[in-house]
Amino acid sequence: MNQRVGHWLLPAILAGGLAACALTKPPPDVDPNLFPTGFKREILDTLTNTLGDPTNVRDAGLSDPVLTAVGRDQRYAACVRYNDRDANHHYTGVQDRIAYFYGGHLNQLVLATKEQCGSAAYKPFPELEKLCLGNTCK
Fold first, then answer.
1. How many CB atoms within 10 Å of residue 98?
2. Residue 52 covered by a domain
3. Strand pairing partners for 103?
4. What is the pLDDT of residue 40?
5. Which residues contact 78 (CB under 8 A, 6 or more apart)?
6. Does residue 8 belong to any structural domain of this protein?
7. How many domains does the chain have?
């Protein structure tokens, strides 16, 4: 008799789980082109975690996010320029990155080409130059 219960119990549990999934609402559609209001903070957080040495960055600049063609779509993008140090505390040279946003949040931060950021209107980005790890900057 226990074997009979086992034959119908598992399918009943699975059916209940599927029914529960069917009752949940799908996530709301996200507007891919919401303006990224927290773009500075998201870029800073990403660079803090990805730069070899995020302290004492020089020549930092940031453009305002603008709608940019990305393939056949439009997305907000901002250009970031900086001269960072590697893990040995040697400056690597000024480089440009482009930040792509989706739904108002940072989606990618990748090296930029001259076509992408060559004519960007950079503004000073002192927050990037003041990044510290722990309590002190080196």
1. 20
2. yes
3. none
4. 98
5. 36, 39, 43, 62, 63, 64, 65, 66, 98, 99, 101
6. no
7. 1
Residues of the chain with pLDDT under 70: 1-27, 134-138
The pLDDT assigned to 23 comes to 52
**Which amino acid is residue 33, in one-letter code?**
N
DSSP one-letter string for 36-94: -TTHHHHHHHHHHHHSSEEEEEEEEEEPPPEEEEETTEEEEEEEEEEEEE-TTS-EEEE
Task: Count CB-CB contacts under 10 A for residue 89.
Answer: 11
In sequence order, which residues have a C-beta less than 8 Å from that of residue 137 and are 6 or more positions away?
A: 55, 56, 130, 131
pLDDT at position 135: 59
Q: Residues 97, 56: contact at Cβ < 8 Å?
A: no
Residue found by looking up tokens 């302290």 in the block: 55
Residue-number span of the structural domain to which 62 is assigned = 39-129
Residue 3 lies in a domain: no
Domain membership flag for residue 63: yes
